[in-house]
Specification:
The chain is of the alpha+beta class and about 350 residues long. The chain is about 35% helix and about 15% strand.
């Protein structure tokens, strides 16, 4: 565990064989790539400089570079090269063949043993960031990638805040001539003080971490609603609704982290408080990335299949006579997935608005 990262070798586009498109954003495309000289596999993020500048996000790009140069931890995505030409900025990073954690847990949620495996790594990575004095400011399952061996990688440092170097700033959110420096992140994961653009620090990251625990266990984001305004109303009212199937220890952990009072949040001052919570009894922290992902039970694998194809299985499940013979734990997880799917359907815009 050291920071900063050792100096990077100078690279250029011809050093890599660009492969398939992995994902695309507003001004970013991510490709698989192979380094020609070594045969090593990477992900290459290609940033459209013109569109990035037009959207006033260039400072976010430089903030991400700054933070990734300052970090060197197995649970934080590593930047292997950074170079540019007249059209694009190229960022070479770890390849994460396991995809986004969000795609793994969406609707399906996560069994306790597997959740512990992910959460231990996430806490290890965030504890390291606290040592480095970097506030992530957008913790959520969409900003967590998995390798093919289920090693968790925290990504997307464009909106981060470096307390060691406060003169280096991201773009923030701009409205007319005003820049909101603390109103950053994702609405469902933003506490009251961020919504009000008051401050962001490790206490706000603690709130977002608690919301991410909810997201992974429930299979959907907290404070879901049909618009940003309605989401903010739910946050302000502390209207955090749990679906069935979330055990009492997990509920207690989340509600103690997602607290309206920043200083009262469990882990606000030290994530060791979170590690000591009863929900994590028996969980090993430190080097969690070295441990294998727990083997899922047959029931958990079947629930995963159903959750990912709920529309297909919903009607057969309603008429299946053998449902009552299932264990109460399996039945409540089926109920959870049905509730979560309805929550997500309810906030999805009508098809004619897509």
């Amino acid at each position: 565990m050291s920071f900063p990262l050792p100096p990077l070798d100078k690279k250029r586009e011809n050093d890599y064989e660009i492969g398939t498109l992995l994902g695309r954003g507003t001004f970013v495309s991510v490709y698989s790539a192979v380094e020609v000289k070594t045969g090593k596999r990477f992900a290459v993020k290609v940033v459209d400089r013109y569109r990035c500048d037009k959207l006033k996000k260039t400072n976010d790009l430089h903030m991400e570079k700054h933070c990734l140069r300052r970090t060197n931890h197995p649970n934080i995505v590593k930047m292997w090269a950074w170079f540019s030409d007249t059209l694009n900025v190229w960022v070479v990073m770890d390849e994460c063949l396991g995809g986004e954690l969000w795609e793994v847990i969406k609707t399906v949620g996560c069994p306790r043993s597997v959740a512990h495996h992910y959460f231990a790594q996430l806490i290890d990575g965030l504890s390291y960031l606290r040592q480095a004095n970097i506030v992530h400011r957008d913790i959520k399952a969409e900003n967590i990638m998995l390798t093919d061996t289920s090693v968790l990688k925290i990504i997307d440092f464009g909106t981060a805040k470096d307390l060691e170097n406060p003169h280096i700033k991201g773009s923030g959110n701009q409205s007319r001539n005003k820049v909101f420096e603390d109103y950053v992140g994702t609405p469902q994961f933003m506490p009251k003080e961020v919504i009000e653009n008051k401050f962001t620090d490790f206490r706000t990251d603690t709130w977002s971490l608690g919301c991410t625990f909810f997201q992974v266990l429930a299979g959907c984001p907290p404070f879901h609603a049909a618009s940003e305004y309605l989401i903010f109303l739910r946050v302000m009212d502390m209207d955090l609704q749990f679906p069935p199937g979330i055990d009492e220890d997990a509920r207690d952990l989340i509600t103690r982290m997602v607290d309206k009072d920043p200083d009262a949040r469990l882990g606000a001052n030290n994530l060791a408080e979170v590690k000591r919570h009863p929900y994590f009894t028996g969980v090993e922290f430190g080097g969690a990335h070295k441990r294998a992902k727990p083997v899922m039970s047959l029931a958990a694998l079947l629930l995963q299949e159903i959750g990912r194809n709920l529309t297909k299985y919903e009607k057969p499940l309603k008429t299946w006579e053998g449902k009552e013979k299932l264990s109460s734990e399996v039945r409540v997880q089926l109920e959870r997935m049905t509730v979560v799917q309805k929550w997500q359907d309810d906030v999805r815009p009508p098809e004619d608005q897509w």
